Design the sequence.
């Protein structure tokens, strides 16, 4: 025996088969748990709903939950609408804005300074001087420029139509009241567009001059430092990129809000669980949940019990634990059950090698194997086909094990031994004292064990006893093994 150094291997396939094999038990346990959970929930709900105070509280809670639920949906929908409007407006702006069309690494600029000149002079001999109207005139022009009159004049004459907000972005007005000057600056995609806007601006200002002269006083408009030039504007580059990124960010936020709104729509709306239909629906849900939990727990218990159990799980374990030769594996009789097709499906799925109807054939094969082994052992002891004393001798073979005695006798009947071989089956030597003399009188011993009933500890004790009695164990026959029904 080499059990001391044997480390049992947990075969996942075997564990899974044990779970699927007992699917009926799992269903029964799961159904029982679901009935207990669902029925218990129904009874508790019915008891609670019979209390008026409880009904009042749950009605208030329902109203709050429903209001919060609907408010969440309205908020999400409002945010989606706002984001869509903002994105649409920003996309329209990016498509129409002159600033977005300018190449920041080749920005064209045009500018001029407009100087207001009057005939005002200081007369030293006068105590009270005349009023200097220069600032008034300058402010009148600036008011005309920034209040939209000049912009309207320009828009009506431009070769390419443009909106007021986009024109104001590229045409800027910088007054200098101390020096009675105002600077007009234009930036555009090319020099021609800059000059066109600046020219129309000067036309509008000059057209306004006669009106201001009549209202305030005589003056002259002088333009100085007029220039058109090309520049690199890195700030404009960053600004354009930020605008484009802002549209992308809006799209991402809109998608996130749309997903949240979809989840909100798919989420369960608060219901009155204390109504009859609500109690029934809630109990059905609890039953389904209880069924799933019960099935998982039952399967986990079966797997755990299979792993830690000391019972004989697989015939191959006997070879690894005790060095025993497995003479044969005899399938157990399969009980007639409903939905046997599932048992057959699982057995084939996990590759069981035997069929339930092969028991008698496998018993005959086991008998032939034992006879061949006996002949091989005795040939080594014979001379010329006879024993040393020259007398014929009948071999005595004993079957014993922890399997039920009736099962052992049934196995011997199915094996059908020849008449010249003395065969005897006895109960387990661990429980029946009368079995000991029979085993001591035998030449060879064969153990008969049953899958999932015989235990490794009892098999070990049997082998220890037989080893102490100097009895040769030919091998083991395992009955009741799993087979395809």
Sequence:
């Amino acid at each position: 025996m080499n059990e001391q150094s044997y480390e049992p291997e947990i075969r996942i396939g075997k564990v899974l088969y044990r779970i699927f094999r007992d699917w009926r038990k799992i269903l029964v346990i799961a159904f029982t748990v679901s009935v207990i959970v669902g029925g218990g929930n129904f009874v508790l709900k019915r008891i609670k709903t019979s209390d008026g105070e409880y009904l009042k509280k749950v009605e208030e809670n329902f109203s709050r939950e429903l209001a919060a639920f609907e408010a969440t949906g309205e908020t999400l929908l409002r945010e989606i609408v706002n984001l869509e409007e903002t994105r649409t407006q920003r996309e329209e702006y990016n498509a129409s804005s002159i600033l977005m069309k300018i190449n920041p690494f080749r920005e064209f600029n045009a500018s001029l300074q407009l100087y207001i000149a009057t005939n005002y002079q200081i007369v030293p001999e006068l105590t009270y001087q005349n009023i200097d109207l220069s600032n008034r005139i300058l402010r009148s022009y600036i008011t005309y420029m920034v209040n939209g009159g000049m912009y309207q004049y320009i828009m009506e004459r431009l070769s390419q139509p443009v909106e007021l907000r986009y024109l104001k972005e590229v045409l800027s007005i910088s007054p200098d009241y101390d020096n009675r000057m105002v600077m007009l600056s234009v930036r555009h995609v090319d020099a021609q567009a800059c000059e066109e806007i600046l020219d129309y601006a000067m036309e509008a200002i000059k057209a306004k001059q006669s009106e201001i002269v009549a209202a305030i006083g005589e003056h002259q408009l002088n333009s100085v430092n007029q220039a058109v030039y090309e520049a690199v504007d890195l700030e404009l580059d960053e600004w354009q990129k930020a605008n484009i990124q802002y549209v992308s960010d809006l799209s991402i936020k809109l998608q996130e809000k749309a997903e949240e709104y979809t989840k909100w729509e798919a989420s369960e709306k608060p219901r009155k669980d204390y109504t009859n239909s609500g109690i029934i629906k809630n109990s059905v849900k609890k039953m389904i949940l209880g069924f799933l939990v019960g099935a998982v727990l039952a399967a986990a218990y079966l797997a755990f019990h299979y792993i830690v159990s000391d019972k004989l799980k697989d015939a191959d374990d006997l070879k690894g634990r005790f060095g025993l030769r497995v003479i044969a594996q005899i399938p157990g009789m399969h009980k007639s059950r409903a939905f046997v097709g599932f048992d057959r499906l699982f057995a084939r799925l996990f590759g069981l090698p035997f069929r339930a109807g092969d028991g008698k054939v496998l018993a005959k094969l086991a008998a032939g194997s034992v006879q061949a082994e006996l002949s091989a052992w005795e040939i080594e002891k014979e001379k010329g086909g006879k024993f040393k004393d020259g007398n014929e001798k009948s071999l005595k073979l004993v079957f014993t094990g922890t399997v039920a005695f009736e099962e052992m006798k049934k196995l011997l009947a199915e094996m059908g031994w020849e008449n010249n071989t003395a065969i005897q089956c006895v109960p387990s030597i661990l429980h029946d004292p009368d079995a000991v003399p029979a085993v001591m009188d035998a030449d060879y011993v064969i153990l008969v064990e049953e899958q999932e009933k015989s235990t490794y500890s009892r098999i070990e004790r049997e082998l220890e006893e037989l080893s102490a009695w100097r009895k040769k164990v030919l091998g083991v026959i395992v009955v009741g093994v799993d087979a395809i029904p």
Summary: The chain has three domains: 1-100+237-308, 106-231, 311-481. Residues 383-392 have pLDDT under 50 and may be disordered. The first strand starts at residue 107 and ends at 117. Residues 1-100+237-308 form one domain.
